[in-house]
C-alpha cells in the first residue's frame, strides 16, 4: 500500500538563489563548451577524451551547484508562504536529484566514447542524450528564475 509522503513547507530565498546562479560562471562556461561540441558531433569524434573531460567537470560543477542551491537558496518551514509557491519550490528542489542522475548516465555514456572499439553511431546517441538532458535543465532553470521573480513579488505584496 502506498503511503502518502507529507509535502514539506519549503520556499526559496530569492536573493541567495539568484546570486548562486550569477556567481557560478564555471558551470555556465562548461555547459556552453559541451553544447558547442554537441552542435558539431565531428568535434567529439575527433577528441572524445577532451569531450569526456568536459562532461566530467560539468557533472561535478552541477553537483556543487545543486548542493549550494539546496543549502542556501531553499529553506524549509518558512513563517508564511503561498501554497502555489511552496508546491513549485518542492517540485524544483526535487528535480535536482533527477537532473543529477541524468548527467551521471550521460557522463558514463561519454566515457564509452573514449574506448578504441566504440560502437558506430554512439557519438550521435550521446549527443541526443545530452540534448534531452539540456532541455530539462533549461526548463528547470527557467522555472527557478520565474520562482525567484514571483518570490520577490510576493515579498513586496504583489503576488497571489
Ligand atoms: Fe536548481
Task: Give a description of the structure.
It is a single chain. With 160 residues, this protein is mainly α. The protein has one domain (10-155): Four Helix Bundle (Hemerythrin (Met), subunit A) (Up-down Bundle), CATH 1.20.120. Helices cover 76% and strands 4% of the residues. It contains 6 helices and 2 strands. It has helices at 14-23, 25-39, 41-46, 48-73, 83-112, 122-155; strands at residues 10-12, 74-76. It has a two-stranded antiparallel ribbon with strand order 1-2. Helix 1 (14-23) runs antiparallel to helix 4 (48-73), helix 1 runs antiparallel to helix 6 and helix 2 (25-39) runs antiparallel to helix 4 (48-73). The radius of gyration is 18 Å and the shape is elongated. The two termini are 36 Å apart. The mean pLDDT is 91. Bound molecules: fe (ii) ion. Fe (ii) ion binds at residues 69, 96, 140, 144.
Series of secondary-structure elements, N-terminal to C-terminal = EHHHHEHH
Please identify, by name, the CATH architecture. Answer: Up-down Bundle
Number of helices: 6
Query: Would you count the extended β strands for me?
Result: 2
* Number of individual domains: 1
Radius of gyration: 18 Å
Largest sheet: 2 strands, antiparallel
Can you tell me the CATH class? Answer: Mainly Alpha
Give a list of the ligands. Answer: fe (ii) ion
Q: Could you name the CATH topology?
A: Four Helix Bundle (Hemerythrin (Met), subunit A)
Structural class: mainly alpha
Amino acid at each position: 500500500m502506498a503511503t502518502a509522503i507529507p509535502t514539506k513547507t519549503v520556499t526559496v530565498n530569492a536573493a541567495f538563489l539568484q546570486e548562486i546562479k550569477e556567481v557560478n560562471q564555471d558551470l555556465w562556461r562548461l555547459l556552453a563548451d559541451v553544447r558547442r561540441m554537441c552542435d558539431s558531433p565531428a568535434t567529439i569524434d575527433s577528441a572524445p577524451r577532451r569531450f569526456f573531460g568536459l562532461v566530467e567537470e560539468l557533472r561535478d560543477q552541477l553537483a556543487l551547484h545543486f548542493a549550494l542551491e539546496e543549502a542556501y537558496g531553499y529553506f524549509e518551514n518558512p513563517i508564511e508562504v503561498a501554497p502555489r509557491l511552496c508546491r513549485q519550490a518542492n517540485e524544483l528542489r526535487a528535480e535536482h536529484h533527477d537532473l543529477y542522475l541524468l548527467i551521471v548516465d550521460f557522463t558514463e555514456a561519454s566515457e564509452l566514447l573514449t574506448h578504441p572499439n566504440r560502437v558506430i553511431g554512439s557519438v550521435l546517441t550521446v549527443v541526443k542524450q545530452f540534448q534531452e538532458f539540456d532541455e530539462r535543465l533549461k526548463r528547470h532553470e527557467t522555472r527557478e528564475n520565474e520562482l525567484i521573480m514571483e518570490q520577490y513579488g510576493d515579498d513586496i505584496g504583489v503576488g497571489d
